[in-house]
Design a protein that fits this description.
429 residues, Ferric Hydroxamate Uptake Protein, Chain A, domain 1, 2 domains
Length: 429
């Protein structure tokens, strides 16, 4: 068994370990190298973290046929750092000493390990070929070193850093079990300020720090013997506190679509969102609650103390505030039986009515009468309560119908809703 353990540890020292930073699963966010790599310049990012201190952090020009070892040798010679490369009895080479820090310095199976792009290579440093844009981490540790996973949790009141690690244990048959566990009692240095993680691995940042887009970040925790327990990161390593804004786009909305301009306009106003898979789903029907939420956002998300006014909209519902606001403003009246039917698909005539009331009661505008519009062929099918609203929107050029018909009882979809809203805001400008 001891031989098996020694073999595993030796292989891990040669091949490196697991991811150093992973994307958070709540709001964002992973650590980001602040040194952008220009692939055209054929560069890689290198970070060297010893047991006692950080030794190197920067970009290195990539040469033809570079391996991790050849890259390290150039950097270490330029930095005048002494090192020893050792042939392993299991094949390949590994770094056994660097800057006076030698393998087994802490009496165990500790030594120099590496990752490339946050992952453990399955080959040794002399065999792993590099490519432009790679990020290499060389660090001193042992099999138990923790690779921190930092999640940024944003609320209206605070920003919390949650620090965890994936810990793998083995049974007697060497079957692995991996669990995510908090890193407690670790010292974090965030933009020069010190914090200590609680038992849940969390710290709450100061308001001043939390307001920043990115901060420098280091983590420190050592064994009683002084061996680093977690990968610490360089002093100027950057942690993104806010998500980087990506160009606004949806996978299923193209410039050739008739609703493209309207959908993008509503998205830019943050009135509508896409789905987690990057799609907008323009042909999906839209609910009554969703329209109330959209109008609330277009109104500037005003503070409201309006109470829930419908039996089927509870205070804890996701749309409660917005529906209550819409009722207070006179945009919606419900179904007449004390309900709102928030999840029901909205009809085209009810959508027209809500938009008409929104212009009148919230925007305080009068829609222009661009032209006397011909009556829709299905005017008789429009409910009396909505007929004037449909007529006003028609005269203002906000609705045009389909083949001369308005189709009042058909459900409105997401694309149609965006188009009507875009037309409405332009007309009311």
């Amino acid at each position: 068994m001891k031989k098996l353990i020694a073999l595993l540890l030796s292989l891990m020292m040669m091949a490196g370990m697991c991811s150093a930073f992973a994307e958070g699963d709540l709001v964002l966010i992973s650590a980001k190298d602040p040194l952008p790599v220009d692939a055209a310049a054929q560069e890689v990012t290198l970070r060297i973290e010893g047991a006692a201190k950080n030794l190197y952090y920067g970009k290195v020009a990539l040469q033809e046929n570079d391996t991790v070892l050849t890259l390290l040798e150039r950097v270490l010679k330029d930095a005048k750092l002494t090192y020893t490369v050792t042939d392993s009895s299991y094949g390949g080479k590994y770094l056994s000493e660097l800057a006076g820090e030698k393998e087994a310095a802490f009496g165990g199976y500790d030594g120099w390990m590496y990752t490339v792009n946050g992952e453990m290579p399955m080959d040794t440093i002399d065999a792993h070929a590099l490519k432009a844009g790679d990020s290499v981490l060389l660090y001193f540790g042992d099999m138990s070193i923790l690779q921190p996973i930092v999640t940024v949790i944003r609320t209206d009141a605070s920003v919390v850093l949650k620090v965890e690690a994936d810990v793998t244990t083995y049974d007697e048959q060497w079957n692995p079990t991996t669990t995510r566990q908090p890193i407690a009692q670790a010292k974090l240095t965030v933009d020069g300020a010190d914090y200590t993680t609680d038992e849940a691995g969390q710290v709450t940042l100061s308001a001043e720090t939390a307001a920043k887009d990115a901060v420098s970040f280091q983590i420190a925790k050592s064994t009683e013997a002084g061996l680093t327990q977690v990968v610490r990161f360089a002093p100027d390593y950057q942690l993104q506190l806010k998500a980087e804004e990506k160009p606004l786009s949806f996978s299923d909305v193209t410039e050739n679509d008739w609703y493209y301009t309207a959908v993008m306009a509503m998205a830019e106003k943050k009135a509508v969102n896409g789905y987690s898979d990057g799609a907008f789903r323009p042909t999906n029907n839209i609910s009554r609650a969703e329209v109330a939420v959209i109008l609330y956002r277009l109104a500037g998300s005003p503070e409201t103390e309006a109470a829930a006014s419908f039996f089927d909209v509870k205070a804890e519902d996701w749309c409660a505030k917005e529906v209550a606001w819409a009722a207070k403003e006179g945009i919606v009246n419900g179904k007449g039986d004390g309900t709102f039917a928030p999840n029901a698909n909205i009809t085209r005539q009810d959508l027209a009515l809500m938009l008409s009331r929104f212009v009148e009661k919230v925007l305080k505008k009068t829609l222009p009468a661009a032209a006397e519009a011909p009556a829709f062929a299905d005017n008789a099918d429009i409910a009396a309560y909505a007929s004037e609203a449909v007529y006003q929107l028609q005269k203002a050029g906000i609705v045009s119908g389909i083949d001369g018909r308005f189709l009042p009882l058909e459900c409105a979809n997401r694309a149609v809703t965006c188009q009507m809203l875009d037309n409405l805001l332009k007309a009311a400008a």
